[in-house]
Structures are given as structure tokens and as C-alpha cells.
Amino acid sequence: MTTRYSKHLPGFVFLSDLLLLNVALYNSHFIKFNTFRPDNTSVTFILLVNIAWVVVSALSRSFYVFRPLLLRDNINKFLLTLIYHLLCVFAIIYFFKIFNISRTEVMLSYSIFFALVVAQRSALFFFLDYIRKKGYNHRQIVIIGDQNIAQRLVKSFSQHPEYGYDLSDFISEEQMADMSEDALIQQLIEKGPNEIFICYKQMNTGLLNRLVKMGDTYLIKIKVVSDLILNNNYAQLVNYDNVPVLHLNVHPEIGLKIRILKRSFDILFSTTVMVTGAPVFFVLYTITKLTSKGPAFFRQERIGKNEKPFYIYKFRSMRVNAELAGPQLSKDNDPRITKWGMIMRKARLDELPQFWNVLKGDMSVVGPRPERQYYIEQIVEKTPSYRKLLRVKPGLTSIGQVHYGYAENVDQMCDRVRYDLLYLQNISLNSDLNIILKTVKVMVQGKGK
């Protein structure tokens, strides 16, 4: 395409976000008060939210869509912006003492806004992916330097047409050796690419500086391609003054942003479940208490993040003193399980009190299931990589539970570990939401045990 409509994309996304924000605000007001016409307090709240969003969004630049298309990263960035925005709004409400705003309206507004933006971003990314595979919205690139590195780069672009790159020229090291730096730069300017990829094993610092200045002058993005080949490793660029260093790791480190997102989501989600689900908790408590002797709640020591022990809470599903003979894993037709306990375990309702563990900070909504020290020692002996799971908060539900289910012995527990290790590679709010939805499906279908 000769016309690059993508330059208008940030503005479109920004205005679209603002429109969806107001759709959420007015619809939440309608749900709460059965009218779209806001009163004076709601008008103040709506104006405050809009002004705060324009400022926070502009600072975070969450409306920018970068190549390659990564929906997960974009949603995470948007959610972080949403959290900052919420904190900003709450600070202003507290400072100006605007305390008569409906809490329900606020929660509905942000929940609807988030859902609308997730749908909007998903549709936008699907559209961009589709048109780029059809040959539209492409950028012209020039690759210079080492031929082997360049071939790997071109192969990657050919396997992923959704990146939207067209190679207009390749200038090898041999060709560059036969021309002056001035001639090379002039040739690149005449090509007029959108981006230049520099593939070098040994970088000529002087030439690199000239190329960077040329890129700034002619609005051409300059990108340097390493000759490293990474399989399942993850690389993070760390700048030590003027020395760029690649930090390699088998699994990506969980950054502050992800930790903030997960903790904020844990608090919001667990609070919502415990408040709205209070009648369900009361019914489960009463039936558990009436159907078998003993307390309604059951607590047991588990090992959490950084091997710190904590007590996990459940509705009691087994008879009292079920482990007098020592630690035992549950199994099909386990005689220790009560009749009512069997029903709860099928729908995993016995796990609901663990939202209190989530709220306290012992657990997360999604994460590897916490185990007892007795079993951890046996698992580590067979699967040493299990120790990696102890670096993160355990979860009320996990990808291992969804795809593998409960384990009846240590060997099955070791098999389940590989699912949770995969989770460590892809920790994000999107994957957490996906696991939660799959968990709800398991609960509805009664596939727990």
C-alpha cells in the first residue's frame, strides 16, 4: 500500500477507547438507576472519569498498537492504564470529598469498560492480522549486514505474514565493503524504507551512529538484529550506562507490572465473589454443618511462595480425622469423603473459602496449586524443576487442574507439574482469565473429584 493508514491507528484507538468509556459509564448508570439521564453527582463523576482518562491514557500511550501484534501485551498495558486511572479517580474523589457516588455504578463502569475494550482490541487485532495476511497495511524494510542472520530474519517474516513486512532490498556485507558510508546512506535514503534491520556480528560504531541519525532525520526506524539463536529462552535488554546487555533466562521473570496486575485482579475478583456470593457461602456452610459431625470449615497447612507455609481453607468434604494414618491423597470412591462432600467436590464448591486466602495475599486466583511439604519433598526428588513453582503465589485454580485434574499419587502430581511450568512461561491476565473460564466450565459440568 502506498498510503499508510496505520499512522491514523493510534488516534482511532484513542477515540474508540474514549467512546467505549462513555458507553460503559452511561450503561452502568442505566443498570443502577434505570435511566440514561445522569444526576448532578453522576455528571461530575462522568466528567472526572473522562478528563482523567485523557490524561492517563496519553501518558501511558496504551492506544498505540505495535508490531508484531501481541494482543496479550496490549491488553496488559491497557489494564495497567485502567488501574492507574482508577487510582487517580479515587484520589480525586477523596481529595474533593465526593463521597455520594454509587460504588455499584463505579464497579459496573470499569467492568463494562474493560470487557468492551477487550472485545474491541480482539476485533482490531483480528482485522489487522487478516488484512496483513492479504498483503495490505505492510511496511517496506531494508536489511543490511550478515547474510546468514538476514536469511533467518526473512524466513521469520515469511512464516508470519501478519507482521506486515515487505523486503525491498538486502545489502550484504560484501556489497557494503565496496561502497563508502556516504554512498550506503544515500542508497538507503533513496530506497525510502519504513524500517532498516541491521544484521551484524561485529558492529561498526561510527556507521551505526550515522544510521541512527539518518533514521531520526528521515523518520526511519533503525533495528539491530543479534546473531543469537534462542529456542525457548527469554531475553531482556538491560542497559549498563552505555553498554547494552542481554539477560537470558529459561522462563521470563515476572515483572512489577504483572505482579501489580495480578494482585489488583485478585483483590477485585475475590472481593466480588465473596460479597455477591455470600448467600451461597451461607447455604454451603449450613448444609455442611447439618450433614455430618464436625466443623463446617477445614484448614490445612500448605507451602506457598518462597516456601512460606500458610493455612488453606475449605468447606469440609471429608469426615473428621480422615488422616489419622498420615497424609493421603483423595481418589475415586474415597470412603473418607461424605455424601455432601462428594457433591461439593464435583463442582469444586469446597474450594470457595480459599478466596479468603486470596484476599489475605497467601494465594492468587490463578497459579500452581499449593501442596503439603510431605508431598513436595517427594515431587522434588522426581521432578527438581518443581522448585520453580515455589517462586510464585499458589492459586485457587491452575492450568494443571483444568487440563489434568486432581492427582491420586505422587507420579500423577509430577505429571501435572509440566502444565504448571508452562503457565510460568505465559503468565498474564489474559491467560488467567482463560483458566478461570475453563475452571467455571469444569464446575458447571461437575468434573471435579
TrEMBL record:
Source superkingdom: Bacteria
Keyword Membrane: yes
Subcellular location: Membrane
Segments forming domain Bacterial sugar transferase: 262-444
Transmembrane regions: 12-31, 43-66, 78-96, 108-131, 267-287
Primary localization class, coarse: membrane
GO CC annotation terms, alphabetical: membrane
InterPro entries for the chain: Bact_transf (IPR003362), EPS_sugar_tfrase (IPR017475)
UniProt entry keywords in alphabetical sequence: Membrane, Transferase, Transmembrane, Transmembrane helix
Record has Transmembrane as a keyword: yes
Coiled coil regions in record: none
Topology of the protein relative to the lipid bilayer: Multi-pass membrane protein
Family: Belongs to the bacterial sugar transferase family.
PANTHER family the UniProt entry points to: COLANIC BIOSYNTHESIS UDP-GLUCOSE LIPID CARRIER TRANSFERASE, UNDECAPRENYL-PHOSPHATE N-ACETYLGALACTOSAMINYL 1-PHOSPHATE TRANSFERASE-RELATED
Protein name: Sugar transferase
